[in-house]
Amino acid sequence: MLVQIRGKLRRGVGLVLLFVLTVGLGIGNPVWANGKTEIFWDSWGVPHIFAANETKLMEAFGWAQARGHGDLLLTLYGEARGKGAEYWGIDYLDNDQYVHTMNIPRRSEVWLNAQTPAMRRDLESFAQGINNYFQQHPDFSQPSLRQVLPITAQDVVAHVQRLLLFEFVTNPQAVASLAGQIPEANVPIASNAWAIAPKQTESGHGLLLINPHLPWGGQFRLTEAQLVAPGMDLTGAAFVGTPVPAMGFNNDLGWSLTVNYPHNVGKYALTLAEGGYEWDGEVKSFDRRNNQVKILQGNGSYQTLQWEALESVTGIVVAQRGGNAYTLKIPGLDRSGAISQFLHMGKAKTLEQFEAAWQKQQIPMFNVLYSDRQGNIFYLYNTLTPIREGSWQDWDRLQPINRSADLNSDYYIYEQLPKLTNPASGWLQNSNDPPWTSTFPPELDAADYPPSLAAPDLSFAPSLLRTQRSIKLLKNNSSLTFEQFKQKVFDSQMELGDRIVPLLVSAAKVLANPIGIEAAEVLQAWDKQANPDSRGAVLFMLWALTIGADKVLGGQWNPADPLNTPSGMADINKFMAVLEGVAAQVKFLYDDLAISWGEVVQMQVGNFTAPANGAPSNLGSFRVLALSTIANQRFQAVAGDSYLSLVEFADRPRGQSILVYGNASQPDSPHNGDQLELYSKNQLRPVWRSPREIKAHLEKEEIL
């Protein structure tokens, strides 16, 4: 493959070609007479890929991902093969055992063979694009990573399967917990999404917010791109190593996803018996698979670990103890079309076509928020959940089982899932809450749906305060401008602070010692936000986390007052004592009880560092950063806001976006972390989509 690279100054044929593309884009997707594929890299490292057909488009997207994320790509594909320990040593052994126990490598072969010929060509082309890049850049990555090459279409399928079914639907922490082990801490996975109808906006155009909250590395890392070929002009974010954006927008519509909690993974306890397990009054044998992994040793030799994996009618056996076998029955193992479904969503031009993609039920979870140029907004609680008795709460628990009558593998069909189109409120939201608060006042009623599908009310939302904050930000808005929309998206007001600080201040006047009174004065002056210059946020966060943010408020959630309960302090005397202790600690550590948020909480990616803007979800901030402790008693963001895209569906949709950690993960890339400062300053960057816009901000052009 010949690659020509041009810099910012483009002459001769290049200028003529760009003019042709600019004109061509005005009348439809351009198709090159010469059949070449072009990648225009803008000044933020976002690739805009124009290709004459879908196969070439996929090949170029693979090339682009290799350029921006080569080291991560090879690592992820090596892990999805279950060969990390063979390639890089014992640190990858737990992953390899998980991958093989869950049968990902063998199942990915079945999935690949189930693809349509067109989809298989796309996958093979995507893999070939990755290989082509490494072939033409032999010194791009370390030899220890290059041994993963060549990448195959099966590697791509295995990576998608691992991410979708074995990180989102279930994950190693859930498996460890069921096995009776102490799981490693799990970095939070959440999201916000909004869809606003034209009747609520000043412009008369619909609006969409895409806002996943994900870990900032590994298999959850996102990459942004524009993909243009006949029948498609899609801008969005794909998980690194996957060939299609998971969230994004085209010229007609857009969508976002948030994590839901359908409890659709069956967790069962079988009674062991000689030769197998008790089933339907008999002893049934396990299906057995032999697995082995090689483990690279420090001296360059290998050790081999072998083990037997067992499967039953109730799923994969993850542990045996106390006379029981504990199993997981994971939905969607037989659904091989997730990549194809995402592709069909990206090509859809109407709500009907978009829904048709979801009706295939190839993706086993996620809330879906949608907006389009025709003025429609749409919400879907998507889940691949078995039809079963009992409540949603019941299916989060271990189920003893010994007969076929208690096991159902038929799923609720698309028509039975909660969904809502064009609500009277003119807006839809989801912040990982159940379907019933997708708009307010509610238009979906849990009583109208099977009780095993979803949580019955808002009290079960994992981020109750953030959901309440989300709804309050959207209620009673009309003539919303794009700038106001953006200001709401960047809201870092802590709902917990709003609710509890007045009570703390009042209690301090009566109960506190001098240090407690001083702390209360700092909290009273605090703006209740987590902006870099917010003073009092550090004190409040440390106080709330010392107590446990979910233990601060007294009482229960009240359906009669759904947006303001629970309320009150659970234990005033204890909380005042904790405030005094935390205040003394803050003074000792930072020499300033009112130290600013940005001095203590930071963001660091690559060679870029910026003061943080946002707070942990359990404090009730709509704008979310998950934190870990670092040196000098400081905190660093490790997850949370990842990709923010705000889209207005005018005649030609326009948007502003940010990929907080930058659009490259290669250590030496100038785009690894270059968007942190924008995020810290409440700024987004324009989404350039036409060749005219791209030309004005061109960093590099590649012709493939």
TrEMBL record:
Family: Belongs to the peptidase S45 family.
GO molecular function terms listed in the Swiss-Prot or TrEMBL record: hydrolase activity, acting on carbon-nitrogen (but not peptide) bonds, in linear amides; metal ion binding
Biological-process GO terms, alphabetical: antibiotic biosynthetic process
Active-site residues, as the UniProt record annotates them: S191
Keywords per UniProt: Calcium, Hydrolase, Metal-binding, Signal, Zymogen
Superkingdom in the source lineage: Bacteria
Naturally occurring in which organism (per UniProt): Synechocystis sp. (strain ATCC 27184 / PCC 6803 / Kazusa)
Name of the featured protein: 7-beta-(4-carbaxybutanamido)cephalosporanic acid acylase
